[in-house]
Amino acid sequence: MAKELNEDTGFNISIKTMIAIGFAMATIIGMWFALQADIAEAKELPKPDITLMEFNMKDINVRQSISNTEKAVEELKIDIRRMEDKIDKLR
Q1: CA distance 35 to 33
Q2: Neighbours of 76 (CB within 10 A)
Q3: From residue 25, how far is each of 14, 37, 49, 52, 79 by CA, in Å?
Q4: Do the beta carbons of residue 26 and residue 20 sit within 8 Å?
Q5: Could you give the C-alpha distances from 90 to 8, 81, 85, 86, in angstroms and in order?
Q6: Residue 82 has what pLDDT?
Q7: How far apart are CA 32 and CA 26, in angstroms?
Q8: DSSP state at residue 5
Q9: pLDDT under 70 in the chain at which residues?
């Protein structure tokens, strides 16, 4: 049979457990207020200015990186084809 909960129902909790629960709650509440303070500070900071020249330089750099990666992939494909041909000759 399941126990019925009523106004006479009681439970035991140790002082050690109560202290641990209080410490956990204090930690979470402290973290919440610290996070809120960081958010408020971040809202007050000025937005970073990105100049057109900086944007263009980053864009060119990204495009060059993509191009270099494509070239490297093509070279790897050629190397793999050569290896496959050599393996086929050995069979």
Answers
A1: 5
A2: 10
A3: 17, 18, 41, 48, 61
A4: no
A5: 87, 14, 9, 6
A6: 94
A7: 10
A8: P
A9: 1
